[in-house]
Amino acid sequence: MKGSPHRHREPPGPDADLHELxxxxxxxxxxxxxRSLEEWGLSPHQAMxxxxxxxxxxxxxxxxxxxxxxxxxxxxxxxDSLEERGLVERVRSPRIGVPCSCR
Length: 103
What we know:
Largest sheet: 3 strands, antiparallel
Shape: elongated
Oligomer: single chain
GO molecular function: DNA-binding transcription factor activity
Domain HTH marR-type: 15-103
GO biological process, one term: response to stress
Helix content: 40-55%
CATH architecture of the domain at 44-102: Orthogonal Bundle
Order of helices and strands: HHEHHEE
Radius of gyration: 17 Å
Strand content: 5-15%
CATH class of the domain at 44-102: Mainly Alpha
Strand order of the largest sheet: 1-3-2
Distance between the termini: 25 Å
Protein name: MarR family protein
């Protein structure tokens, strides 16, 4: 996010193997993606959660956690931060009667 230090990796040298080149390219892509999200004040985790929730047309927070491969508690924190900004809405599940879904 804004103000966070970005680690700069030196580009691989002329003798770099394909693995090293791919790792460098992936790092650069992640860095640029995070930088592009700064305009909207989103972290990469928030952007992935928002995209996943939109693709699934909402769903349970536990399902979101599974899709993102993060702990349910972490998914709850991400969804809570998105809800505070009005980007998602948590609603009670009619089956369970507890707040567990986002849309």
